[in-house]
UniProtKB/TrEMBL annotation, chain A:
Pfam families documented for this protein: FAD-oxidase_C, FAD_binding_4
Oxidoreductase keyword on record: yes
Occurrences of domain FAD-binding PCMH-type (ranges): 35-214
Top-level taxon of origin: Bacteria
Lineage: Bacteria, Bacillati, Bacillota, Bacilli, Bacillales
Classification via SUPFAM superfamilies: FAD-binding/transporter-associated domain-like (SSF56176), FAD-linked oxidases, C-terminal domain (SSF55103)
Cofactor(s) it depends on: FAD
Protein name stated in the entry: FAD-binding protein
């Protein structure tokens, strides 16, 4: 980047919030996915005014801009793939207002998601989206990627809770979308367009989130199954019996064994699957619901069902699920974490397809996920220094996506497309569908400066390259 | 870039470990310097990545890696937060070693001395130091090589401090602001040094103190170099408390500095020499357990096994030594209850010593002991598990950065309305005393070592 542009940038943000040294720039070259891309400068804006001026400067000189939250992305969302300027939004975090009368939260993009949970719960309210990184990730990042976590089944995903935004457009204008009302049909729903657009259509500088009353109580059970098929049937039976659990988590045999090996907690390593079911609501109602869930699990062939009697036992049951991530990373230094999602009824079929992919490519593939909403997390554990195995992993990833799309599902339930899934977009959307999305991008961002190199495949790119 | 020397050594010692980081960022909210400085290079994830890049030769060890590593407090809260068990402490020490080596290559005169083992300096070491060396670095080097490894010299320094405090020279210096003119951090810490006990009250090396009542164990007391010199009263009370719960206490004569400061500054060879001296001294004591009262030293003793793992002649002995090393609160809690004789009124809060909590995993015993004091109200402080930014001598080397973190902590301490902030490490204690001086809203608030609080409640003086 030319010196005079850096000089102009210095007139917008002070020295202590602008980095050009090599070590500082390298510190913004990664996220939790793959690849290392060195930006030319990093800035830490503190308000919308600064963001507008940075965007206008970038537009004038056609410099790529990469907004970044806590960089916990698993799809490459914040990676500065074409250099340019990284906008580290983590310090833009001054506002977190809970509006109790209107059941709203008004927040700055750098606020950590768990802080919203905490503030809302202090006054008996509840913000349901809860990605597993919510104690680290920023709300700006969550909204850009539309990532939601385990409660999507009952409470919906992040996009259902965003009702208003303040956005800096790729031309550097400040606009507001939606507002403070739950109902709003004035014009196109730009709020929904921005949520999940992965920073390709603008930079969110403030958001209005809907809150709901906090459920009074919750109960949890853990059921183990000799056959994976049976666990799938238990899940669909519970959902068709009129119960809507707050969470339904599934772990396959490879996953159970990994956890038990990592930290023995009495899981049955000979079982094909286990499920965790959590219901929340009025104490009397959920007491009845959890008994019903228990009965259904036994009817569908569960070998054992444990219902937590108190909060301590509940935490014990969840412990198995929470150990999954650390346990599987013990199996190898590189984790390719996918989030292909299928209609709920297709979970057993998807599990079968994943089994076939595992044996075909001889990979360490473990599966867990949010079974209630069809969002599975197949994880390939490998070592990126093993080029030959990485090649097999690339092939396997392509087949996982193909399987999900064939079963009527989608490439990504919550991690986003970023760089890693861009090559498969046409597989799901078709040529015309992808072209409509491109037209939106071109209309919003004529200079192609807003997170360029993401979502859309490069010409001729049909598969991911990890090595 | 050359593939020899410090870079290759860094690659061999730390690249695999750094590569285990999955860059999930779960360490970010646990890191005090990331929170206060707000940039990725001041986070564990950022630092691990920079070590990896330096090992690969993509950035320079001295120009690019040194500063971010230097700004790490070494509190190791990130290790507790890490879901995949990246050994950050090892990576940090490998990086410090590489940085020290690279700087020695560039400035053979000054840094070469620092790297030479204690007592074996070359002739070059005695020549006047290079003009380029900043005073904190010079002080650090002199303390590291000439002071900490010599308990006798440290005691003499402690006695001089006693004289300085008693004679009124301290008051005079403060009035004339002579010290603050020389160095702001030195002046700040001079003000909060605890009162030193007169020389005649010091315990003698090699003494044995019989257990009161039934003897439950024979323990050897690790006095610690700074604790012994400056806080010998706390050490004396530690011994008395141990005897009250049935320990026969021996103070091994040939013990020396634990080596933590050396290891943290990249002087691994020196740290290893000190470790061997301590192992030999304590083995002779015939004790069942080795007790210390300083979280920072305790962590080093706890890791002698790792420090000497590659040394065939010492590995096994070092491992045994580490297994026997315990913090005083663990033993008082295990062999207690303490025979309290007086009530303590007011609110007590506890600031964890990072190295006690994060490295030795001791969290409950200090809290349980404080709660057991008759009449006391224990209130947990938000962020008690986050470093106070004392960090060995971090607060002297990086005064401004350290004070930013300390002031934020004091805001949380004020919320507890505590009269007493308790710590379990001399560095943390000095830092919290400075914090009280700077920011306490409750003018009665004081910072004390846990042993002093427990001893007072047991009627010991």
């Amino acid at each position: 980047m030319e010196q005079h542009i850096l000089q102009e940038l210095r007139t917008i943000v002070p020295e202590e919030r602008m980095f050009v040294d090599l070590a500082e720039r390298y510190s913004y070259s990664y996220d939790a996915s793959f690849g290392e891309y060195l930006p030319e400068a990093v800035v830490q804006p503190l308000n919308a005014g600064e963001v507008c001026r940075i965007v206008k400067l970038a537009g004038k000189h056609r410099i790529p801009l990469y907004p970044r939250g806590a960089a916990t992305s698993l799809s490459g969302g914040p990676l500065p793939v074409e250099g340019g300027i990284v906008l580290d939004m983590t310090r833009f975090a001054h506002k977190l207002i809970i509006d109790r009368e209107n059941l709203l939260a008004i927040v700055s993009p750098g606020v950590i998601t768990a802080d919203i949970h905490k503030k809302a719960e202090e006054v008996g309210l509840f913000y349901p989206p809860d990605p597993s990184s919510s104690h680290v990730s920023t709300i700006g990042g969550n909204i850009s990627e539309n990532s939601s976590g385990p409660k999507g089944l009952k409470y919906g995903t992040t996009k259902e809770y965003v009702i208003g935004l303040e956005v800096v457009t790729p031309l550097g204008d400040l606009i507001r979308t939606g507002g403070k009302t739950v109902k709003n049909v004035t014009g196109y729903d730009l709020t929904r367009l921005i949520v999940g657009s992965e920073g390709t259509l603008g930079i969110v500088t403030e958001m209005i989130l809907r809150l709901i009353p906090k459920p009074k109580a919750r109960m949890t059970l853990l059921a183990t199954f000799d056959r994976l098929q049976d666990s799938g049937h238990a899940i669909t039976k519970i959902l068709s019996s009129g119960i809507l659990p707050a969470a339904m988590e599934l772990m396959d045999n490879a996953c159970i064994r990994a956890v038990e090996q990592f930290e023995p907690c009495g899981l049955p390593v000979d079982k094909e699957a286990l499920i965790l079911v959590e219901v929340d609501g009025h104490p009397a109602a959920i007491e009845e619901e959890i008994r019903q869930c228990e009965a259904i699990c036994y009817e569908q062939g569960a070998s054992q069902v444990r219902v937590a009697k108190d909060e301590r036992e509940r935490e014990e049951l969840w412990r198995a699920r929470k150990m999954v991530s650390p346990a599987i990373t013990q199996m190898g230094p590189t984790k390719i974490s996918e989030d292909a999602t299928v209609p709920r009824s297709k979970i057993p079929d998807m599990m079968e397809r994943l089994n076939q992919i595992r044996s075909k490519y001889q990979l360490n593939l473990v599966v867990f996920g949010h079974a209630g909403d069809g969002n599975l997390h197949p994880n390939i554990i490998t070592d990126k220094r093993n080029k030959e195995e990485m090649k097999r992993a690339e092939e396997a990833v392509g087949e996982i996506f193909a399987a999900a799309v064939e079963l009527g599902g989608t490439l990504s339930g919550e991690h986003g497309i970023g760089t890693l899934k861009a090559p498969y977009m046409e597989m799901e959307l078709g040529e015309a569908g992808l072209s409509m999305m491109k037209k939106i991008k071109e209309a919003w961002d004529p200079y192609n400066i807003m997170n360029p190199g993401k979502i859309f495949p490069r010409p001729g790119q049909i598969k991911v390259v990890l090595t | 870039m050359d593939k020899t020397g410090p870079q290759q050594k860094l690659f061999d010692s730390a690249h695999d470990e750094a590569n285990r980081c999955v860059q999930c960022g779960y360490c970010l909210p646990a890191c005090p310097t990331y929170i206060s400085m707000g940039k990725e290079s001041a986070s564990p994830r950022g630092r691990i990545n920079l070590v990896k890049l330096a090992a690969e030769g993509k950035i320079d060890i001295a120009d690019d890696l040194a500063q971010p590593i230097d700004l790490c407090l070494g509190c190791r809260a990130c290790e507790v937060a890490c879901p995949v068990g990246v050994p950050y402490g090892h990576i940090l020490e490998s990086a410090k070693e590489a940085i020290a080596d690279r700087q020695a290559q560039r400035q053979p005169s000054a840094a070469g001395r620092a790297a030479a083992p204690a007592g074996q300096q070359s002739a070059a070491a005695r020549t006047p130091s290079s003009r380029k060396e900043r005073w904190p670095d010079r002080l650090k080097r002199l303390a590291m090589t000439q002071l900490f490894p010599y308990p006798g010299r440290l005691r003499a320094a402690g006695n001089m401090l006693w004289l300085y405090q008693k004679s009124g020279l301290g008051r005079l210096l403060r009035r004339t602001k002579l010290l603050s003119g020389l160095s702001e951090p030195m002046a700040a810490f001079e003000q909060v040094l605890p009162a030193v006990e007169p020389p005649h009250k010091r315990y003698a090396w090699g003494s044995v103190f019989p257990a009161k009542g039934e003897k439950k164990a024979r323990v050897a007391f690790f006095a610690g170099c700074m604790m012994d010199a400056m806080m010998s009263r706390t050490n004396r009370l530690t011994i008395e408390l141990l005897t009250l719960v049935g320990c026969e206490v021996v103070v091994p004569g040939r013990q020396t500095c634990c080596g933590a400061l050396h290891a943290h500054q990249g002087l691994k060879a020196q740290a290893q020499e000190l470790a061997k001296a301590n192992i030999a001294a304590f083995e002779q004591s015939g004790a069942d357990l080795y007790i210390n009262n300083a979280g920072g030293c305790g962590a080093m003793l706890h890791e002698y096994g790792d420090l000497l793992a590659a040394d065939e002649a010492w590995a096994e002995r070092a491992r045994h030594f580490s297994e026997k090393s315990k913090d005083v609160t663990e033993i008082l809690h295990q062999y207690g209850p303490l025979p309290f004789t007086r009530e303590r009124h007011g609110v007590i809060t506890y600031q964890d010593s990072c190295h006690l909590r994060n490295v030795q995993g001791v969290r409950t015993p200090p809290r349980e002991l404080l709660k057991s004091i008759p009449g006391a109200t224990f209130v947990e402080m938000e962020g008690c598990d986050q470093c106070c930014a004392s960090g060995g001598i971090y607060n002297l080397l990086h005064f401004r950065e350290s004070m930013n973190i300390l002031d934020a902590k004091m805001n949380k301490a004020n919320v507890t309305k505590a009269d007493t902030i308790v710590t379990t490490n001399p560095g943390c204690l000095l830092q919290m005393r400075l914090g009280v001086e700077r920011k306490a809203e409750n003018r009665e608030m004081e910072a004390l070592h846990i042993v002093d609080v427990l001893a007072e409640a047991c009627g010991l003086k």
